[in-house]
Amino acid sequence: MTDVAIQKPAKPGNNRIRPPSVMRRYGSQLGIIGVGLAMWAAFIAAAPTVFLDPDIYSAFAETTPLFAVIALALTFVVITGEIDLSFPSIMALGTAVFCLVAQAGLPHWLGLVAGFATGAACGWLNGTLIARLNIPSLVITIGTSFLYRGIELILMNGTGVPLTQEHYPAMQAIFNSHVFGIPVQSLWALLLAAILWVLLNRTRFGAHVFLVGDNPTSSRLMGINVVGVKTGAFMLVGVVAVFAGLMTSFVGYYFWPTTGDGFLLNTIASVFLGGTSVFGGTGSIIGSLVAAYIIGAINAGIVSAGINAFYTQLCFGLVIVLSVVLQTIIERRVRRQSITGR
Amino acid sequence: MPDDANAGRVPVIELRNVSKTFGEVRSLAQVNFAVYPGEIVGLLGDNGAGKSTLVKTVMGYHRPDPGGEIHFEGKHIDDWSVARARGLGIETVYQERALCEKQPIWRNMFMGREPTNRWGLLDVKRMRSEAARLMNEHMGFTSAAVHPDNVVATMSGGEKQGVAITRALYFDARLVILDEPTMGLSLTETRKTLDFVEGIKNAGKSAIFIDHNIFHVYPVVDRLYVLDRGRVAGMYSRSEITMDELIERLYRVARSGSMH
What we know:
The complex is a heterodimer.
Chain A: H1 2-6, H2 22-46, H3 48-51, H4 54-79, H5 87-103, H6 108-132, H7 137-156, E1 161-162, H8 169-175, E2 178-179, E3 182-183, H9 184-201, H10 204-214, H11 216-221, H12 226-251, E4 254-255, H13 264-273, H14 285-304, H15 311-340
Antiparallel strand pairs in A: 1-4, 2-3
Chain B: E1 13-22, E2 25-35, E3 40-45, H1 51-58, E4 69-72, E5 75-76, H2 82-87, E6 90-93, H3 105-109, H4 124-139, H5 157-170, E7 175-179, H6 187-202, E8 206-210, H7 214-220, E9 223-228, E10 231-237, H8 243-256
Parallel strand pairs in B: 3-8, 3-9, 6-7, 7-8
Antiparallel strand pairs in B: 1-2, 1-4, 4-5, 9-10
């Protein structure tokens, strides 16, 4: 910001030669990282014994990725200007399909394939209804949320499945172990963040996600397959939701038919807290990842700092509302600068 | 019909018996329309005459009603689409500009045909540097005053039009369609846009030029179509009609729906 203050008024006609400022381009990402660091410092100050002990980081490095991975994929859908409220049900349905395949005595890898295919199919149905028939995603994914949950409850007859180390050694190693002392869940989240960052920022599909969310009519006029791009984004959420469902279930050594309950708001909050605009066209994978860890940290932090757990929700609310307000203000200020050239 | 100059030649693009209906509204009725190589074709008509619908049908954005045919260089093409049309070298500068305003210039410049490297990944570096080069060499409107990372929302109307025109020009189109390109532009910007249309002709390419202002259209075109309520009401070579006659006939068509 200082360079803006020091700079003398530029000559007219000469005022936009400079590239947009760092704040303009990365303002919201820097904002969210700043909020994250400030909160961490506050937690250390409030409860140094807890927050200087590595155990707490280990604990929350296991639980946060369970919803962080979905937030990463959901970022794509939100950038296209849509929302998906059905992913908690897809988590459960895909994991249920895995359990059924495994219980039928078939190889577990086949269960994974079937589970992911289920997630892709659910996402395809969401995307097709939304993009081809132009149904608002808010409405239709509430509907499909009940639909997928209903199918899952009927398939499982409402009962759960134990997923023990003894019967699922390979799956436990994949979804619930430590690699060089680091919880594998966080490694999955980082790997997925890297892959999805490339997908969003370095592929034609990712480029089209931004364009479609920004202006679907312009995109169609320029020959972009708007239906295909939106459907692809929903399928991505479907597959990643099943991944998160499996991870959640193996971490708990048990598949509950209610899997996914309690994931909805955490995940969506991560995407918006991370600076992805609800209006579509802008957003960031790194923002969503950092925001998910901030939300995870509030949860773990408040409980282990010995503060009454009733304060968790209040704290969530404050951080989310403040961050989104700050982002909006920063964005507006920076945009004005860029228009007036100062 | 005054087709002598083009007799025996194969049009770049030809619409045969094309109609387009939206629900109850018939926007185009049995339109026959052709553009020949190296030719600038003007499209005149009142609001609602079907000019934009015609352009969007040529571009593959609208699909013609059954019975209508689109021919590209003499070949009947069934699965006409925007991607197909652009792939064959037809580019449009739309009235509504078709930009994505929250995106930087370089993303807008390569919309729908982003270059990739040998791993299939987006060549962002090239997109940025090419966008900068094109803006310096071709846009002309603001010379070097706009950075490729600027988002389009921060630009003036003329600069936005510059992006839309450069985007059509860059890809070496053989047919450029300009739909009301001078709307909302300043005098100098309008002049530059008209020069650009002349440039298309000098480069041996074809263009379709649509504008409300007959004083802009008449001087640059070789041939003119007049649309009225979705029909082709008349077609003239510029050599066989003076501007005054044309204006007279346009008034007549507006009153009676017939040019003669």
